[in-house]
Amino acid sequence: MENNFKMIAKTMYGFEPVLAKELMALGAMDVKEGTRNVSFVGDKGFMYKANLCLRTAIKILKPYQSFKIFSEEDLYKKIYELPWEDFMDVDDTLAIDATVHSETFTHSQYISLKTKDAIVDRFRDKFDKRPNVDLDFPTLRVNIHIEKNFCNVSFDSSGQSLHKRGYKTATNIAPINEVLAAGMLLLSGWDGQCDFLDPMCGSGTILIEAAMIACNIPPNLNRKEFAFERWKDWDEDLFEKIEASVLKKVREFHFTIQGYDTAPSAVHKAIDNIENANLTEFIKVKRQDFFASEKEGERHLHMLFNPPYGERLEIDMPKFYKEIGDTLKQAYPGTDAWFITSNLEAIKHVGLRPSRKIKLYNGALESKLLKYQIYQGSKKAKFQE
Fold first, then answer.
1. Do 188 and 141 reside in the same domain of the chain?
2. Which PROSITE patterns does the entry link to (predicted)?
3. Which helix (H) or strand (E) covers residue 258, if one does?
4. How far apart are CA 161 and CA 96, in angstroms?
5. Do the domain assignments include residue 292?
6. Is there a single domain that holds both residue 281 and residue 369?
7. Co-location of 146 and 189 in the same domain
8. Over the range 216-237, which residues count as b (16 or more CB within 10 Å of their CB) and which as e?
């Protein structure tokens, strides 16, 4: 038990319960939801597993020290006193990320700079040499979080944000974030036990995340590197054991996952990305106008999509959303249809009542994830069965 420690998984607004559920399913202990984060307890192997397997986490932080500070000099002094040489050598590199919510400290970049100065000054005073900064691939990425007068110092075990799964080489103008896609799928109850359609698939992110959930494939299997691989205590054998154990849990998928898009360029990009993710056998993409399509077969269908917001195409929003509603009503019986939109005015034109509305953010845009249940036959007949 003494090898266990507390960690913090950062996420997007609205996904805290989903992430907590993911962590519990993986075997995390002492799981507690925060705002845009979930804290939990596990050992080094679990830290590796969390980075590999969590679909809705953006970063996994390993807290190191917490203390009160009342001035920038205070911060400098307390950071300087920490034994940084235990975690990196003088020839190594570092990067600092700072988040600040405080009236005393208002500038996160200045806090980053002050932290960096304290660390490199300690090395210079001890070894007559200072480590360099490398913002992209540092040996050690330090996370500073200041809330009022409390400073939390953590090590970032992930490195680049975990939404960068490693399969996406081609994107459209407004690609959806992989963590947002996975979170929406999990919120929608997608579990791979029926057919799936993304009728406006763009570069294929939702399709790929849907296939990985359906087959229980770890989302970050294609990543080139995690930050913990540069740490002094990096254990490659342990990581390989964890990787092998999660790959044993991959399962078969007996339904269809399909994507449509009207733009040939989007279809090509989606196919490329699906190939990069090694998921070609599970996902089919074709050029197809959703508004001229109809449901294939009798089986229940799970649909989730991110309609365009008008960046790629000049769209008459009221007409476009009315067509979404009409197509669902007339051509997609027996379907649970979910979509996200930041155009809260346009929702009124769908002409169907959503059975669920979940507030999320797509980037900085406040959005709603909406669910429309399209019954087989009429709704009245459904209740008379």
1. no
2. THUMP (PS51165), UPF0020 (PS01261)
3. strand 257-261
4. 14
5. yes
6. yes
7. no
8. bbbbbbbbeebbbebbeeeeee
CATH for 258: 3.40.50.150
**pLDDT surpasses 90 at 168:** no
Q: Is residue 222 part of a domain?
A: no
pLDDT digits (tens, 9 = 90+) for 125-136: 999 999 999 998
Half-sphere exposure of residue 56: CA atoms within 13 angstroms, side-chain side: 25
In angstroms, rounded to a whole number, what is the distance separating the alpha carbons of residues 213 and 67?
A: 40
How far is the first Cα of the chain from the last one, in angstroms, to the nearest whole number?
Answer: 55
pLDDT for the residue numbered 105: 86
Residues 106 and 193 in one domain: no
Round to whole Å and give the CA distance between 307 and 342.
10
Q: How many CB atoms lie within 10 A of CB 73?
A: 10
Strand order in the sheet with 140-147: 29-33, 37-42, 5-10, 59-68, 150-156, 140-147, 93-101, 132-133
Q: CA 383 to CA 240: how far, in whole Å?
A: 52
191 and 147 within one domain: no
Say how far apart CA 382 and CA 375 lie, in whole Å.
7
Confirm whether 40 is domain-assigned: yes
Q: What are the residues whose beta carbons fall under 8 Å from the beta carbon of 354, sequence distance 6 or more?
A: 347, 370, 371, 372
Ramachandran angles phi, psi of 20, nearest 5°: -60, -40
Query: Which positions ≥6 away from 116 have C-beta within 8 Å?
Result: 94, 96, 133
Domain with residue 145: its CATH number is 3.30.2130.30
Which residues make beta-bridge pairs with 353? none
Residue in this structure with the two tokens 């509305």, named with its chain if needed: 357
Number of domains in the chain: 2
Q: Which two tokens stand for residue 26?
A: 């993986």
Q: What is the pLDDT of residues 244-287, one digit of tens each?
A: 999 999 999 999 999 999 999 999 999 999 999 999 999 999 99
Q: Which residues partner with 305 through β-bridges?
A: 339
Q: What is the domain extent for residue 285? A: 176-216+249-377
Same domain for 150 and 269, yes or no, is no
Instruction: For residues 182 and 149, state if they share a domain.
Output: no
